[in-house]
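Morning, I've got a small favour to ask if you have a moment. It would help a lot if you went through both lines with me. Thanks so much in advance, here it is.

***
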Amino acid sequence: MSIKHAAIVGAGVAGLTAALSLARKGISSDIIEQAPQLGEVGAGLQLSPNATRVLDSLGVLAELERHWFEPRSISLVSGKDLRHLAEVPAGDFARKRWGHPYGVLHRSTLQQGLLRAALNQPLCHLHLGQRVQGIGADALASITDRKPDLVIGADGAWSVAREAVAGSPSVSFSGNIAWRFTIARDAAPAFLSRNGVTAYLGAKAHLVSYPLKEIDGFNLVAIAAGTRSDESWAIDADAARRAMLLEQFSGWHRDIRTILAGAEKPTFWPLYQASDGNWHNGRDTVLIGDAAHAMMPFSAQGAAMAIEDAFSLAAHVARAPMPSALASFSTERKARAARVKTRGDFNRFAYHARGPFRIGRDLVLSLRPPEKLAADLDWLYGHQIGD
């Protein structure tokens, strides 16, 4: 074992998964979080089999399954006329083909499940309400009273830990905005699928809907080109932003526009992405999750990539000296993240296609059976990290 103790900056999905993954290897950690408490953050998210495989290894999955919804399929539907275009089977099919389930849940359900596991793990120590003023083993030791062998930056897109990594990625506005809101089940229109994830596709925009068991309703995310607001995440959508939303979904089916117009308390999320860059300093500091590779949600892999990063990092540092462990981790995960980003870029083009490209997309999708579409995702959902 190359290290005995780590300091993790950030107690989100990436940070908590890293702490549990390290503990599984007998490595202790201090998790440092600036928030005074870990409450409900964000909205719904999708966990594909490549993520649930890791969560199962960490002993967290069974608890999540008590609260989540397991969709039967992931469907693509025309936002203009609600015509079914294609479908990837999930449910029992996902368990059999990829070995683990596909689930949808509230982000806070995942974070609280990870948090409970960390609090019950003697090797994990949580420090809330601690704003990091400087990145480095000595600076973090002033908070934790223990000097770490490794510093892990798991502090998201606006990472402070990047300051300790020369040539680290920079973050820029993607040109896309997400509007997130929920609808109670008894108020939801009949066309929203009660048993699956649905992506409604349109020109320069798309809308994703799926049930959330925790709220007895639906999570909806509308994504379209937009103008930058600021670096905040969840901003209340005022009248001007609502008008922009409806304008971007003009020409869509009237029932979808009715949902968007009547959304209660929608939040406005400018979407940011990270450039290429160094993920580690070659000695004792490494970035994971959005701190390393914030990406667009067009392949629904943001949380999954953070979970994979954390598990992979623990495997690397447990079996090799630090410099080579960080180098091999970075090489492995950069290739994986790049492939996922490429898939997301393709999905963005396909989902938002217009004119002849839309017609071609619909024709190609109509000719591909569900099993073939599923096979195209084997590299993504069937991915296994060496232990």
